[in-house]
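BUG: 3D viewer hangs when loading the predicted structure for this chain

Environment: internal workstation, default settings.
Expected: structure renders.
Actual: progress bar stalls at 90%.

Input used:
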Amino acid sequence: MKTTYPKPPTVRSLFSVMKTTRIKLLAFAFITSFASLKAQQIDTGSYSYSLQQCVDFAIQHNTSMQNAILDQQAAGYKVKEIIGSGLPQINASSQVQEYLEIPTSLLPGEIFGGPPGSFIPVKFGTKYNANLTFSASQLVFSGSYFVGVQAAKVYQDLAQKNSERTRIETSADVSKAYYTVLVNNEKKKLLDANVERIKKLSDDTKVLYANGFVEKIDVDRITVTYNNLTTEVANINRLLDLSLVLLKYQMGMDQSANLSLTDKIENLTFTPETIQTGKFDYTKRTEFQIYDLNLTGKRMIMKADRFGYFPTVALFGSMVAQAQRTKFDIFDTKKGWYPIAIVGLQVSVPIFDGLQRHYRIQEDLIGIRQAQNNLLFMQRTIDMQQAVAKVNLQNSAATLQSQKDNMALAESVFDVTKKKYDQGVGSNLEVINAQTALKEAQTNYFNALYEAVIAKVEYDKSIGTLK
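Structure tokens produced before the viewer hung:
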């Protein structure tokens, strides 16, 4: 093949290269500056996420999720490891020996004319010996190996399903934490409105008291109510911060990050889907798939034990080079090494093992029956979970609607009572009682709202739609 050498550069080509290089450097500087600016924007630690974005973030940063993904990767390597045991195995070894005493052999004395029964000690060998060995083997047939490869792939699928289950659990935890923040946000809004309302009432009452239209006890009552509300607002603020801490923890987000939520609680629907009894596809539930893979694995184990009755066939070969020296000059290339080479076929046939394999297969059969029972138990568990989750969601939705109506009614009563008080036909005590009833109705509403969103998450999880 003809070798082509590059032409020497000319002055024009050098100038062109310098010009191109300068343009590239300027472009690189611009890109670097833009990337640095972009990095500074990202490093501010401010996030405005929807629920789905929070779940996606958790999938990448949650520790349990990361470990599940690592387990899945490890399972993939385990499959390759098992497959590798059936590929050619090549090894090399070297050994150098120095005989401090050369072994002695006894030869019959009759060979050298000695009396019968006598022996003559003779030393054979050299002081220094060395050998270099190369060996190779290849599995030709092994039923247990082929089944083992299939079982390893089942193990890999099981690790994948465990990863999916962890993903679903992570999604459920993040969803609950996300909705908790939303509920606390709504509760804070109503409490702030209550404080503003009572603050105005307190200011008006103080003016009336200054003009002699109400008593001191009326001012004190309003002040107590106002102080209680401000304390509750401070508590809900701390609770809101704590719920954000929990959400960041579930997401695997740094606690110093600034996280705001974009979803709205009013966009949630609490109507369960219609499921035909007996028609549910159990494979939608990752737990069922795991139990099904466990059953497949048990069958693989029994199949491998049965293949143990078949012979195992393997090819092997080795090449050995030996050196024997009276002096330590084994690396002298002028002196010879003596080769030995062999190839062979090894067939291992099990004949009788004390019925160990027979009883092991009986144990495998019991394991398969247990796995079948567990699979049936999981089906019944899924049916039960769906029935319970559906009833809980229906009850929670009904309770939520009732508490929402109660809250609207309590707010209407407060407005009417406040108008009567402003017109001088109502008492201060009636306003405080109406405010207390309103606050209680709001508390009941938010408790019902929280129970409803949790029931919604559990129901979606039970029917396999929470991803």
